[in-house]
Automatic annotation (TrEMBL):
GO molecular function terms noted in the UniProt entry: ATP binding; ATP hydrolysis activity
CDD domains: ABC_Metallic_Cations
Protein name according to UniProt: High-affinity zinc uptake system ATP-binding protein ZnuC
Origin species: Arthrobacter saudimassiliensis
Compositionally skewed regions (Pro residues) per UniProt: 255-266
Domain ABC transporter: 9-243
SMART domains given in the database record: AAA
Highest taxon listed in the record's lineage: Bacteria
Assigned protein family: Belongs to the ABC transporter superfamily.
Length: 283
């Protein structure tokens, strides 16, 4: 008799501190295959730190993270986890084309030589088509609009064929077309069995986007269906708001969490892939 399959992502009692600042305090959550999970919390609640801890780029002071039952480092080496960073983490002046950025997602499939084969070119073409960027494939990445840039990094995750996709604020500053395109592709990836964790401030769109939601304030306050997580009493605990959207008496602003190290591009992504994400280096 075999046990239940391991969840795609398991975060167990994770605590992360930057000096005297506690960014995560005993945070726990699981993410199952085929699920889109929205991550909700105010600035400074630990969302970016959680992403980078799941990626294995920040070592927790306590607790564990497992991806498909193994370590984050092993998942990165296999290329089974992909990360779409916030816009400010990317060097948009780096001299690479949109196609180059998407091809970075294929490096883990290329072997030691890292020379793309026809299968890699085909995967990149399919990913670009899915996010409606085929006509911009040869444009320098920084010359895209904000929404197109986000779509390019989503395409990189699609081309990587990762089973776990982490997206840090992909809808921030994007146009409606890009938001709709990204949402449709995330739902399609989940239908294909991929596991997706996505941070967002758009609470109204969350029920349409996500199967589950997590409310974070350094620790996980609520994890469940979006309709449950978005109940006013739960939002009040995380945002310091009353049911009418006003500030709760006595509520205080939370200072932003210190910036953790920027992530590398997907597993073994090479010098160019590391350089486009600020402060990154090869995995």
């Amino acid at each position: 008799m075999t046990g239940a399959a391991a969840p795609a992502v398991a975060v167990d009692a994770v605590t992360v501190r930057y000096g005297e600042v506690t960014a995560l305090d005993g945070a726990s959550l699981t993410l199952d295959p085929g699920c889109v999970c929205g991550l909700v919390g105010m600035n400074g609640s630990g969302k970016s730190t959680l992403f980078k801890t799941i990626m294995g780029l920040v070592k927790p002071d306590a607790g564990t993270v497992r991806i498909h039952g193994g370590s984050p480092a092993a998942a990165r080496r296999r290329g089974s986890v992909a990360y779409v960073p916030q816009a400010e983490e990317v060097d948009w002046s780096f001299p690479v084309s949109v196609r180059d950025v998407v091809m970075m997602g294929r490096y883990g499939h290329m072997g030691f030589t890292r020379r793309p084969k026809q299968a890699d070119h085909d995967a990149v073409d399919r990913a670009l088509e899915r996010v409606e960027l085929t006509e911009y494939a040869d444009r320098q990445i920084g010359r895209l609009s904000g929404g197109q840039k986000k779509r390019a990094f989503v395409a990189r995750g699609i081309a990587q064929e990762a089973s776990v996709l982490l997206l840090d604020e992909p809808f921030a500053g994007v146009d409606k077309r890009s938001e709709a395109t990204i949402t449709a592709q995330l739902r399609a990836l989940a239908d294909d069995g991929r596991s997706i964790l996505i941070s967002t401030h758009d609470l109204q769109a969350l029920p349409e986007l996500a199967d589950q939601a997590v409310l974070l304030m350094r620790r996980v306050l609520v994890h469940g269906h979006p309709s449950e997580v978005l109940r006013p009493e739960h939002l009040a605990r995380a945002f310091g708001l009353d049911v009418l959207g006003g500030t709760r008496p006595g509520a205080v602003d939370t200072p932003p969490e210190p910036a953790p190290p920027a992530p590398p591009a997907p597993a073994a992504a090479g010098a160019a892939a590391g350089a486009i994400v600020k402060g990154a280096s090869d995995a």
